[in-house]
Model the fold of this input.
Amino acid sequence: MKNLDLQKCILGPVMTNCYFLKNKETGELLIVDPADQPQVIIDKIKEMQAKPVGILLTHGHYDHILAAADIKKEYGIPVYASAMERETLEKPMVNLSAFQGRACSLEADVQLSDLEVFEAAGFSIQTVYTPGHTAGSCCYYLKEEDVLFSGDTLFHGSVGRTDFPGGSTAEIVRSLHRLLDMLPEETEVYPGHDSSTTIGYEKRYNPFV
Done:
């Protein structure tokens, strides 16, 4: 990781990974999936002495977005998400927050298309559509840093659940193959839950391949 200072907090009711991507040169920072506990996120940003410039959402389930509105308001920064994830973000019954007693509706400021490359915090980031866990799940690939943020699409040795609204086992398997086919084996993969992995490891050992 040349310019990336990558740290994380594990937050919320189902131990979600919230990632902090700080550009070592500029001090700018992106938050990936602000899961819950906004004050913990704010404290982490202060600890890293960083300047937040955006929020990246891999998908719209409640356990990845509950702190997003508060963090957006605190720093006046935009929320990025797949354009195909609009319904999940906006409807509490679809993003499952309605079942947690914390109904949450969110609108992305920047709606990203498949394979779109955008600049944020001094990083070049590619959006890769990976439906299956939700209808509009996506991953974020930082080629120059050799890292992928896979949300709940790809886990260490597994894939995400497909029994929620908009889920599809066939689609998530297609999405898995797409990632494994397009990315270098040395790419480090940082999922929405549990430990990191690599594309090379998943090619060899993921039972869904």
In short: Helices lie at 38-48, 62-65, 68-75, 86-90, 92-95, 169-182, 199-205.
